[in-house]
Amino acid sequence: MTAERHGTGASPERVAVYPGSFDPITNGHVDIIARGARLFDRIIVAVLVNSDKRPLFSIEERVESAREVFGAEPKVEVDAFDGLLIDFARQRKASVIVRGLRAVSDFEYEFQMALMNRRLAPDIETVFMMPAEAYTYISSRLVREVFALGGAVQGLVPPEVEARMRRKFARE
Ligand code: PNS
Questions:
Q1: Other Cβ atoms closer than 10 A to 116
Q2: What sign for the dihedral angle of Cα 81, 3, 14, 106?
Q3: Of 41, 44, 52, 114, which has the highest C-beta tally within 10 A?
Q4: pTM for this prediction
């Protein structure tokens, strides 16, 4: 189907954005990005600059970290964004927003965001994807907490990210 026929006016290349705080990027995020890369021509990992939360990693560190993980993958791009997600999606000619759903508890917040984004940009569709079961309990918040209290995060985040966390907490 051409872009004209489904009425988006977007490029025929199917571009998705995968937004988040990624503080830090976890294996659950990596799993969703890999699934997205199979469905779309390109997936842009969009790292939120100004989060309400005080991030552990700076925006530069979060972007660099995701690029380290996906450096060799031509379909994956990593960029920072500020302001409304739908504005960023439009700038980058993306017609899809990808979000991961781990459990029913994620649903309410995700549903609100998806409907608000649809109201703001009816031409951009939100697509929910489920990570592998092994990652359904992982969140960036828990990874930060466990690591800060001395617990192991091996297997929860990519090795590059674990190394970065060790450097941050000076725990070599
Ligand atoms: O990983 P997170 O923190 O759950 O990601 C939340 C994110 C970045 C997707 C959301 O906060 C967002 O899109 N922020 C950008 C501002 C915006 O567009 N707000 C309206 C969304 S309904």
A1: 14
A2: positive
A3: 44
A4: 0.92
